[in-house]
Amino acid sequence: MSTSPSDPVTAVAALYFDGRSARAHIVTLGVTDGVLHVEGDDVSRSEPLGALRVSEPMGDAARLISFADGAHLEVRDHAALAALLAATGHRDAAVVRWAFEPRMVVIMLSALLLSVWLIMQYGLPWAARITAPLVPDSAMTVLSERTLEWLDQALTRPTALPAARQQALREALSSVASIDGQPIVHTLLFRSGGQLGANAFALPDGTLIVTDELVALAGADAPVLAVLTHELGHVQQRHGVRMLLQGSATALFMAWYLGDISSLLAGAPAALVQAGYSRDMEREADDFAVKLLRARGQSAGLLAGMLEKLAAAHGEGAASRSGPMGWLSSHPDTAERITRLRSTEFAAD
Amino acid sequence: MDNPFEHAPAEAAGGNPFAAGSPALQREPITFSGRGGEYFGIWIVNLVLTLLTLGIYSAWAKVRRLQYFYRHTTLGGAAFDYHGDPRAILKGRVIGFMLLLAYNVSFQFSMIAGIAVAVALAAVMPVLLMRSLRFRARYSSWRGLRFGFDGGTGGAYSVFLKWPIFTVLTLYLLGPMWHQRMKAYQFNHARFGSAQFAIDAPVGAYYRIYGAAIAVVLLGMAAIGALLGSLADGNRAVFGLAPLLFILLLLFVQPYLSARLQNLVWNHMQLDGHRFESSVSARRLYWIMLTNLIGVIGTLGLFMPFAAIRLARYRLQSVTMLCAGPLDDFIAGQAQDAAATGEEAADLFDVDIAL
Ligand SMILES: [Zn+2]
Predict the structure, then answer these.
(1) pLDDT digit string (tens) for B204-248?
(2) Shortest CA distance to A187 belongs to which of A169, A161, A213?
(3) Across the interface, do A139 and B108 touch by the CB < 8 Å criterion?
(4) Is the model's pTM score more than 0.95?
(5) Domain-wise residue ranges, chain A
(6) Which of B46, B47, B110, B253 to mutate to test the interface with A (most CBs of A within 10 A)?
(7) Architecture in CATH for domain A12-98
């Protein structure tokens, strides 16, 4: 058969299968007056176009024309079929055309990158903020217990702080830890920081951990309390749970996204996301700390001073050794925060 | 032109594969014509629409993805096809997601609730897996004839519940035997049209393959232990690297396992007197998987469609069908007519079982 371009609606070569045997019938197709004619190799069949279904185009792959009774045609003569389909007014679904248009592929790629960025930047934090209060306390307790176990096993050692000093700090914190007349549930634990050095962190259930090194660095009780009020801010605003929810959602997405290749890699990005609180969360915790400090007639400068000491103690070189839970890696932009705490906004009183 | 079917492997097959009475035991290679650049378009559209619809489109995406791979796979001049209904798949995904959520949430509340849900899941999972095998087979076709799967509930509980328990109780000593039983269940009950598949891979062969893989893993773990021990020097945090190194070790062994197992299964497969030949090389598969992994990481995942195509091409084109008679002779099975009835819920759980 010839397929010269001048030929308006050419016959199309195809294979016909009747759906009852695997026999391939070599046939040609043609359309007249809205009816498809199949002729060749023991087959002679006519069918109105409305009763047929044409498969989506997929590159070089054969396109299939299906009959209602289970028979089908396989067409690999793409140019001739395209001409035939165009003549019958057939148009593929938009989604299908997009996949094979370079321009749409570029648009889709940009849309993908933009939506991933929007979701990571705004969508997830917003969703986590909404859902964090719904997480049951029992779940937060389990989570905190596991984290504490891991900390004790891997990083920290028992405290060497005298019991009297511990008691004094606990009492001092209890007297600060209330907001709008309501006490904030918390537990204060002391640990020797080991390689974590001078450090403090909060677990989602209200467990606060402060290292002996931080107490020593502070010298007095007031700066320690300033840091702990900041950590209470993380607890009160459920920052830990929010980070965890964001991390889990990211992990779920990555597992699905990378599912084709290997879900083994999915844990890594989640760990990265979970490595630290966001800048906004640090600000929220700082604001909360200043509120508590002021309620006791103390200034934001206490926290700023402590931040300076911590930054100096960890130093540039030491920061990298301070590990995944280190104060500096989990509390970014320390210099910026110090400036903010010392600014007129906070030093007003 | 006298042969309009560009992809017909007429030359390779030594004659016209469509003619009745082709010579006996001719070789029909499987060919795969998918291209990474082309599949990228489908992949990115699927991804964006799935994101925008919060996952709902993923069922349609799955059908389109499978159709791309099936239709680019040809044997004897004709393509495979996939007919799965996205709505059935979506239903399965919703139920699967809820069960998964129930499982995860219940453990947060209490140990007993968690165990109860886990036991309930273990009790229904074999049936779901059986139905998933049936769904996948029933909606796959070649030359207009559907595949089928007739495995029963008893067999499903045996290979998906009894054998896993045996395996764990014997500290995985029965693992290879379980794998053999699973493949036997999967293929001895599979059909193409009215023709029955049969597999006769001996259990000793599974033990040889797993034995070699485990030996490599054990040696690797010893090496990792020694390496970390010398690096640690009193610093316990170094051992945090152990899981990462272990994953790298598994990534090293996985191509070997999957290459040898694919060859074992297909070289012992029969379909009504026709046989198959699979010649996947572990070394080449390793190279493909390694470069795929580097590509995927380096492009933050954008290489994935190319990686999937490369892997599918190599694995599919390693298989040849050794035909005992003309391919035209297959006929539809009796159960063919029942395909549409009663199976709407078949794909409850969208669990894929690797070939
Ligand atoms: Zn903080």
Answers:
(1) 999 999 999 989 989 988 988 888 878 766 666 667 777 778 888
(2) A169
(3) yes
(4) no
(5) 12-98, 118-346
(6) B47
(7) Roll (2.30)
